[in-house]
Write a sequence for this structure.
């Protein structure tokens, strides 16, 4: 999880967009990890997973609007799948007692995390 979390911060701090192939590779790595490990996530992992899924999802949505044809469809599918994961993780945090404001506050702080 930490590797994926560090990588999303690298991407978020870059000035240029990563190419489709790299974006897709990261997305697939994230999806595979979530599919295999999400049931065992501790609270901290759920936070990081929500952060990752929300950021990749919103980036994929934005790219889907800019692209045409096949790539646009792929970005849309990525966004749809990660929307489901983001909803899952947000629901789990709500079950742990966090409300929407607390989630938003923590989420904003995560953008400033020093992951090195």
């Amino acid at each position: 999880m930490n590797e994926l979390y560090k990588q999303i911060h690298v991407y978020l701090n870059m000035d240029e967009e990563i190419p489709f192939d790299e974006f897709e590779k990261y997305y697939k790595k994230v999806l595979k990890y979530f599919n295999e490990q999400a049931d065992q996530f501790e609270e901290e992992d759920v936070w990081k997973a929500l952060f990752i899924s929300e950021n990749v999802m919103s980036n994929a949505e934005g790219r889907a609007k800019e692209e045409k044809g096949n790539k646009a469809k792929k970005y849309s599918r990525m966004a749809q799948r990660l929307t489901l994961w983001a909803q899952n993780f947000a629901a789990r945090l709500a079950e742990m007692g966090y409300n929407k404001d607390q989630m938003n506050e923590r989420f904003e702080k995560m953008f400033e995390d020093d992951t090195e």
Observations:
- The mean pLDDT is 95.
- Residues 42 and 48 are 10 Å apart (CA to CA).
- The helical segments are 2-12, 20-37, 43-66, 69-95, 100-110.
